[in-house]
Amino acid sequence: MTHARGERAALCDLLDRLGPDEPTLCAGWTTADLAAHLAIRERRPDAMPGIALKPLAGYTASVQNRLKTRLPYPELVGLVREPGGVYGLLPALDEAVNTLELFVHHEDVRRAQPDWEPRALPDDLERLIWKRVSSGARLTLRKSPVGVVLHRLGGGVALGGPKGGSRVEVTGRAGELLMFCFGRQAHARVELTGEPDAVSALREATLGV
After folding, report:
1. Pairing state of beta strands 147-152 and 191-193?
2. Which residues contact 141 (CB under 8 A, 6 or more apart)?
3. What's the N-to-C CA distance of the chain in angstroms?
4. Mean pLDDT in each 10-residue stretch from start to end of the chain (209 residues)?
5. Does residue 96 share a domain with residue 130?
6. pTM over 0.90
């Protein structure tokens, strides 16, 4: 099983277990909202642009809400459980595009529940996540108000944010650095080192793609 399929299955098992009305780390979204988002992301190409482009976000939101309302929750989760569209036809593309997306959203559900703890990840998934985090640091940290040095426990350094001025060092496992760089700073188990004002600014910044 690929990592994308493993994260997909684990996420869907968790969604089924929790039901449609539990919170997630996606602001304002319940578990049903997140399931609908993932379903249209793969199965409604007409609604996909609004996920990234604000002028089209209203249409995407309306499609997402209609899907959530129209389908019983178990059927909605069922749509997420099997890769849709081109990802269902090309497992390699599913692995390349969706591993991090599904990992982050799996953690969005896990970490919104009480008493969560970080998972112990397989070494190859840890390496894959770090490879993507390090190569994408300039993009995910482009809105950072301060320079950022990512330190992966186990080896690896990546830079992001402004090249001049204050700098904050962020240290953690690859999965935790991923959550941090994707805007989940408050729910990432990392250590931040730097001037207090710079650390505070980074914690509250809008990060991610």
Report:
1. unpaired
2. 148, 160, 161, 181, 207
3. 27
4. 94 98 95 96 82 82 89 96 86 91 97 94 96 96 96 94 92 98 97 97 93
5. no
6. yes
User: What pLDDT does residue 106 have?
Assistant: 98
Tokens of 141: 């940290």
- The verdict on residue 88 lying in a domain is yes
Residue located via tokens 């700098």: 167
Same structural domain for residues 90 and 153? no
Question: What is the C-alpha separation between 77 and 8, in angstroms, rounded?
Answer: 10
Q: Which domain holds residue 54?
A: 3-110
Q: What is the pLDDT of residue 197?
A: 96
Encoded tokens for 67: 């899907």
What is the rounded distance in angstroms from the CA atom of residue 42 to the CA atom of residue 25?
21
Q: How are strands ordered across the β-sheet holding 167-172? A: 157-160, 147-152, 167-172, 191-193
Exposed, middle or buried: residue 4 (CB in 10 Å: 0-12, 13-18, 19+)?
buried
Q: What's the confidence (pLDDT) of residue 55?
A: 85
Number of residues that make up the chain: 209
* Cα of 194 vs its chain's centroid, Å: 25
